[in-house]
Amino acid sequence: MKAEIKKKEISPDLEKNILKLSKSAAKNCKTDKEKAEFLKIELDEVNGGPWNVIVGKKFGGVVTYIPDHFIYFSIKGTDHLIYSTRNMKGKQ
């Protein structure tokens, strides 16, 4: 199962981990919602949250994310948009 990377700004280690988790989700989860929930829980636990995960066939959007924490890819025709907004609080 190969992932088609569409856009990314992410460290190689984090990319490898996300793709591994996403391939596992593709095999073990029945719905896109289950895949997104699985990925969010895993990423929040392993890499610290919050992670935002969108999985589906038809969606669009504009997101703000922290540097080196964004990836957009497709596995078997299903798109995955994954990014983190950790520590994006404005200065007071």
Model description:
The protein is α+β, with helices and mostly antiparallel strands and 92 residues long. Helices cover 36% and strands 30% of the residues. The protein contains two helices and four strands, in the order βααβββ. Helix 1 runs antiparallel to helix 2. The protein starts with a strand and ends in an 8-residue tail after the last strand. The model has no long low-confidence stretch (mean pLDDT 91).
How would you state the average pLDDT, rounded? 91
**What is the count of helical runs?**
2
Q: What is the tally of beta strands?
A: 4
**Judging from the principal axes of the Cα atoms, what is the shape?**
globular
Termini, distance in Å? 46 Å
DSSP strand content: 25-35%
Radius of gyration: 13 Å
Which stretches of 5+ consecutive residues score pLDDT under 50? none
Order of helices and strands: EHHEEE
Question: Helix/strand-derived class?
Answer: alpha+beta
Helix content: 25-40%
Taking strands numbered 1, 2, ... along the chain, how are they ordered across the largest sheet? Answer: 1-3-4-2
Largest sheet: 4 strands, antiparallel
